[in-house]
Amino acid sequence: MTNDTDLEAEIQRLLTEHDRIAEQGITVQRRDHLVVLGGEVESAQRRDEICRQISSHFPELEITCDIGITRAQAPSEVEEIS
Amino acid sequence: MIRIAAVGDVHVDKDVVGRYRPALEELPDRADALLIAGDLTRHGTVDEAKCFAQEFGGLGVPVVVVLGNHDHQSDQQDEVTKTIEDAGITVLEGAATVLEIRGHRLGVAGTKGFGGGFAGACASNFGEREMKDFVGTAERYAADLERALKSVECDALVALTHYAPVPETLVGEPLEIYAFLGCYQLGRSIDAAGAALALHGHAHHGSERGRTPGGVPVRNVAHPVIKQAYNVYQLLSEEVDTTLIGAR
Ligand SMILES: [Fe+2]
Ligand SMILES: [Fe+2]
């Protein structure tokens, strides 16, 4: 099995270069027995696809997904630039 | 007073269509124009560009965008640009546009930009051909931005890029990748021309606020950074007025 540092790089390249994902903003953190995924994406389908792809490429890993969906509500404040 | 809405890194594909629309319907009540700082699509395909145009077109206010690195992924940036322009959206690359807003002239000059890094940790135009190409590309984008900024006569000038012109708005990203997130040459161009505001995206884990060495305010408007459909910035204020925007 690859070491932890290479694993993180491999997961990140998979997420960036896989043509159904193309996400560069996902964080990968190793805990004792599992890998925690973080960051935000634009849809629930994208989050689920990420978890599905990592599980199928690294079947020996236990994955926990903390990836959020970026909120898209209208703002309530304005910032004055000076 | 001019109010501009801004966001970046919306990465639109079929699964995103409709997510921004409720907030966008309210945009004309809140701002006079919308600027989008690149990564409009997921892989830069024409189909995705159509999804983007559907989601961000026909707003009732001018929409001005630059492309991001994702919009170049399929080597179809020209077709992507055309698809977006056909929807009435202005795409800037080393170019500028002037919007007439409430009796003011708002100038927007834009480029995608490129990486290369910042003072103390930047790539040099030296060595292998590949390295000189990398740095040369960044310098070309920065020169194009400076020329575009200097080409307009307006009351307020905004620089719009995908890559970051300063490192402050990258805080939160791993230091090791700063050189892939922006370059100091963009900041130098903005300072050389002068601007009221510089907007960029690309750094999804970065921070919102910074300034160029010359003092121009910089805002990272990447969607995961601002965590709402768009931010609103007020320029040319006659009086200090940062109260809530009246939501009708
Ligand atoms: Fe992005
Ligand atoms: Fe990007």
Compose a concise summary of this entry.
Chain A: InterPro entries: BON_dom. By secondary structure, chain A is of the alpha/beta class.
Kindly describe this structure.
The complex is a heterodimer of chains A (82) and B (248). Chain A has 82 residues and is an alpha/beta fold. Chain A has helices at 4-17, 44-57; strands at residues 27-30, 35-38, 40-41, 63-65, 68-69, 79-80. Chain A has a three-stranded mixed beta sheet with strand order 1-2-4, covered by helices on one side. A two-stranded parallel sheet of chain A has the order 3-5. With 248 residues, chain B is α/β, with parallel strands linked by helices. Chain B has one domain: 4-Layer Sandwich (Purple Acid Phosphatase, chain A, domain 2). Chain B has seven helices and 13 strands. In chain B, the strands form three sheets. Chain B has a six-stranded mixed beta sheet with strand order 5-6-9-10-12-11, with helices on one face. The radius of gyration of chain B is 17 Å and the shape is globular. Chain B starts with a strand and ends in a 13-residue tail after the last strand. The mean pLDDT of chain B is 95. The complex binds fe (ii) ion (2 copies). One fe (ii) ion binds at residues 39, 68-70, 162, 202 of chain B.
